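Technical annex, item 7. During the second reporting period the consortium partners agreed on a shared format for inverse folding records so that results from different sites could be compared directly. Each record opens with the tokenized structure and is followed by the designed sequence. A conforming record, contributed by the partner at site C, is shown below for reference.
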């Protein structure tokens, strides 16, 4: 997935809410693990709802289609506190293109989201080597910009939409 532009920034890394930081880092680690095991990273979202994390893959014929599927999922979330969209892409650094696993995410009501990622290289056998620390990439679209904060939703509406969902992961730590 490479057809995505995230505005990079030479300014300081902004303060990222803890719940957003956790879900961004979780998705990056999931993607790193998949790649280390030789699997492709299909774009996926992670939604934090109450103490649960819901993962959903967004395969598509094009980058635009994948992002549209992800946007649809996130924009229709109810009671979610944060989300991350993770994919295999690239960043341009000093007039050079570098491969990166990228996680974009946001929280309800904020105009902009953030993008972070791990730069990596591939050896001749197709084994990735990742940078030791994730890097702040820049501002990103926030698919949750039009949503209310999680505590503004009715508990029954949230429970009905998510608690019977079998895609839920364990509790967010």
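Designed sequence (site C submission):
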């Amino acid at each position: 997935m490479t057809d995505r532009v995230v505005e990079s920034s030479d300014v300081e890394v902004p303060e990222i809410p803890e719940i957003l930081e956790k879900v961004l880092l979780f998705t990056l680690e999931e993607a790193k693990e998949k790649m280390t095991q030789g699997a492709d990273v299909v774009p996926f979202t992670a939604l934090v709802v109450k103490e649960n994390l819901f993962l959903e893959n967004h395969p598509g014929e094009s980058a635009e289609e994948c992002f549209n599927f992800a946007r649809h999922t996130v924009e229709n979330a109810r009671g979610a506190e944060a989300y991350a969209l993770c994919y295999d892409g690239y960043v341009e650094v000093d007039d050079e293109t570098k491969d990166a696993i990228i996680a974009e995410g946001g929280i309800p009501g904020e105009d902009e989201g953030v993008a972070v990622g791990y730069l990596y290289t591939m050896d001749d056998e197709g084994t990735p080597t990742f940078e030791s620390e994730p890097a702040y990439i820049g501002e990103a679209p926030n698919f949750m910009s039009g949503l209310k904060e999680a505590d503004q939703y009715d508990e029954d509406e949230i429970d009905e939409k998510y608690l019977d969902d079998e895609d839920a992961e364990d509790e967010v730590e």
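The two ends are 29 Å apart (CA to CA). The chain has one domain: 18-160. All partners now use this format for quarterly exchanges.
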